[in-house]
Design brief:
208 residues
């Protein structure tokens, strides 16, 4: 098989995800999460763009010494020592804007029965009627309940108490840490990207 260059996180890149010493922004962290030592550079770039990350972010991470390249083959069949990824989005699906239905589904399908009820009475009232903010908070709460029902209990409480877009945005890094699991980097990145997209939309009143 022909040899190809596979991007991998350097030790510094791995440390950064845990320590945040460089205080990287969400876009840089999203690309680092997508670099798993299996995907080709083109795949990482396309998935990053699909998650709303500019293409040059990948190059910036390389220049910062957080991503390097290693030689691999054109087939993943030889990596018998590695467990298969739960999901690799087919490249032919990475061509349009991310639909809301993908924000929670590439690697985990969240259903009401999995998430349990979220009593409306437990939620702090928003500072103003805001449908996008309502949806963003609901997405994050579902994700935390699905991936960290115990460890994320404090995060869930903070989400319930959030009243504004600034409150939700301040919790995104914390939520990302709770929901990012092995082989679920894409799902976590897309969930956060979808919420950021909602927080950037023009405010519209919540449905009654």
């Amino acid at each position: 098989m022909p040899s190809i260059n596979i991007p991998v996180k350097t030790p510094e890149g791995v440390d950064e995800l845990g320590s945040r010493q460089r205080k990287l922004g969400q876009r840089h962290r999203t690309v680092l999460l997508l670099v798993d030592g299996r995907r080709r550079e083109s795949q990482v770039r396309q998935l990053a763009v699909q998650a709303g990350v500019p293409d040059q972010i990948f190059d910036e991470l390389v220049a910062m010494g957080l991503i390097m390249f290693t030689h691999g083959t054109g087939s993943m069949q030889g990596n018998s020592g590695l467990a298969p990824l739960d999901v690799d989005l087919p490249l032919d699906t990475v061509s349009g804007p991310l639909p809301p239905s993908l924000s929670l589904q590439p690697e985990s399908v969240l259903t009401d029965s999995m998430l349990g009820d979220l009593p409306i009475s437990d939620l702090a009232p928003l500072d103003e009627a805001d449908a996008a903010l309502d949806e963003a908070r609901a997405i994050l709460m579902r994700a935390v309940k699905a991936e960290a029902p115990v460890a994320g209990s404090l995060t869930l409480m903070r989400l319930k108490r959030a009243r504004s877009r600034n409150d939700i945005e301040a919790l995104l890094d914390e939520v990302e840490q709770r929901i990012t699991k092995p082989f679920k980097g894409i799902w976590a990145a897309q969930t956060i990207a979808r919420v950021r997209e909602l927080l950037r939309t023009v405010n519209s009143p919540s449905a009654a």
